Amino acid sequence: MSTILVTGCSHTAGDELSHQFVFADYDEFLLNAKTHSQEHNYMTMRKKQILYLLKNYQNKKFESYIGNNFKKASSIANRYFRFVDRKFAWPVVLQKLLPKCKVINVARSGNSWKQNVQVTLRYMKKYDNLIVVHQVPNIYRTYIKHGNRKHKIIGLNDLEYLKKLHQGNIERIKTFDELAIKYENLVHRDITHDYFRKATGRFTNYLQKHTGTSTKHLFILTHSDQAYLFPKDDIIIDNLSEIQQNYTQGPQGHVVDINFTKKVANTVAWYLQKTFDIC
């Protein structure tokens, strides 16, 4: 049995795909979301998720959090629906298309290419004859060490959004401000020395250098301008964002149409079947 490891960010983790289940009229929510702020849409979605859990599980302990610890209730809802999202992500469809293979989806929301490389290196120690399909995130994503944590950084706009979500939490806002300063320093380095593209190239070269003959890497690129950073013959999709424009997207910018997951899974399955004697 061949093992297929899938890495990536929220677009492969299935973010927002479960949201349609918590609204009586999801299309109406999507329409209204266009006129509201990102944080307003986030809170609306979170409240709907909590109501869904209350209605369908009737857990008294969870109910007690609503009045006493909304932050705890929100965290539980977030973890639950992250799990549900993954059930609808395209690697799940890929598993159904290739039943004789084992598909492992390690994509996580907010991941950078560097984080995906690190995860891949760990799995390469566990599996032989591994095929890795990398959904390569935007190259400007990274993580920054601050205190005892590694913080995923999508961009300065996302840090501002997080500050609004955590309004009133002085400690968290201070952390976001300090992260913004560190990220701005990287942006300045990028302007003068092309930092982000060079970093992407370094991690790609490092991955290839530490890959044995039993592992094969394939790539799904977010944008076509990433193509020169990866082996041409190993690119399955060279512009995922262009494909995404043909499908309905949620307020957070993720495709919420299951036809998209089928499209990506079918494209990957076709490539694997014509290239390798598997599944």
Give the helices and strands, then pairings:
Elements (H helix, E strand, L loop, with lengths): L2 E5 L2 H4 L12 H8 L4 H20 L2 H9 L1 H18 L2 H8 L4 E4 L7 H12 L5 E7 L5 E5 L2 E5 L2 H10 L4 H24 L1 H15 L5 E7 L13 E3 L2 H5 L13 H18 L4
Parallel strand pairs: 1-2, 1-3, 3-6, 6-7
Antiparallel strand pairs: 4-5
Q: In a few lines, what is going on in this structure?
A:
With 279 residues, the chain is an alpha/beta fold. Helices cover 54% and strands 13% of the residues. The termini are close together.
Give a verbal description of the structure.
The chain is α/β, with parallel strands linked by helices and 279 residues long. It has three domains: 1-14 and 88-154 and 194-270, SGNH hydrolase (Rossmann fold); 18-84, no CATH class; 155-193. 54% of the residues lie in helices and 13% in strands. The protein contains twelve helices and seven strands. It has helices at residues 10-13, 26-33, 38-57, 60-68, 70-87, 90-97, 113-124, 156-165, 170-193, 195-209, 240-244, 258-275; strands at 3-7, 102-105, 130-136, 142-146, 149-153, 215-221, 235-237. A hairpin with a 2-residue loop joins strand 4 (142-146) and strand 5. It starts with a strand and ends with a helix. The model has no long low-confidence stretch (mean pLDDT 93).
| pLDDT < 50 stretches | none
How many distinct folded domains? 3
Share of β-strand residues: 5-15%
According to DSSP, the number of beta strands is 7
Per DSSP, the total helix count is 12
The outline comes out as globular
Describe the oligomeric state of these chains in a short phrase: single chain
CATH top level assignment of the largest domain: Alpha Beta
CATH topology of the largest domain, what is it called?
Rossmann fold
CATH superfamily (homologous) name of the largest domain:
SGNH hydrolase
- Range of helix content: 40-55%
Structural class: alpha/beta
**Overall radius of gyration:** 20 Å
| Biggest β-sheet strands, sense, barrel | 5 strands, parallel
Largest beta sheet: strand ordering = 2-1-3-6-7
**What is the string of SSEs from the N terminus onward?**
EHHHHHHEHEEEHHHEEHH
CATH architecture of the largest domain: 3-Layer(aba) Sandwich
Taking the alpha carbons of the first and last residues, their distance comes to 8 Å
